[in-house]
């Protein structure tokens, strides 16, 4: 009873496109703030290493705190991306193998469902 590639026929392209773009907005809404925090932590750590500081111990403590916050924020960012950036058709992340995930693919690399309209971005 295996039907060959029925995804295109049974799922109108607009449905998977609209649903995936909706999920992508959620991923940005929840995933962007922790990403910004991570970037700020990295910048602050670099700045801390390059300015004169009265107390070396305080500097070390600040760097450790920044690194911990940065790791937690990065984990949160990855968590939200993995939670929301999923193909509506097969519910898998659009993985590119070792290159990570494609956050805005035209078609799902797993099942071939359309995830973005070719001309939707001017
Ligand atoms: Zn898919």
Report on this model:
It is a single chain. The protein has 122 residues and is an all-alpha fold. It has one domain. Helices cover 58% and strands 0% of the residues. The chain contains three helices and no strands. The chain has helices at residues 7-10, 13-50, 56-84. It is elongated and about 60 Å long. It binds zinc ion. Zinc ion (ZN) binds at residues 87, 89-90, 92, 108, 110-111, 113. Zinc ion is lined by residues 87, 89-90, 92, 108, 110-111, 113.
Task: State the gist of this model.
The chain has helices at 7-10, 13-50, 56-84.
Question: What are its keywords?
Answer:
single chain; 122 residues; mainly alpha; elongated; binds zinc ion
Give the cofactors and ligands: zinc ion
Overall tally of structural domains: 1
Q: Which residues sit in consecutive blocks of at least 5 with pLDDT less than 50?
A: none
> What count of helical segments does DSSP give?
3
* Outline type: elongated
> In percent terms, what proportion of residues is strand?
under 5%
The count of β-strands is 0
Q: Given the helix and strand composition, which structural class is it?
A: mainly alpha
Radius of gyration over C-alpha positions, nearest whole angstrom: 20 Å
The average pLDDT is: 85
Q: What share of the residues lie within helices?
A: 55-70%
Order of SSEs, N→C? HHH
Distance between the termini: 43 Å
**The biggest beta sheet, please?**
none
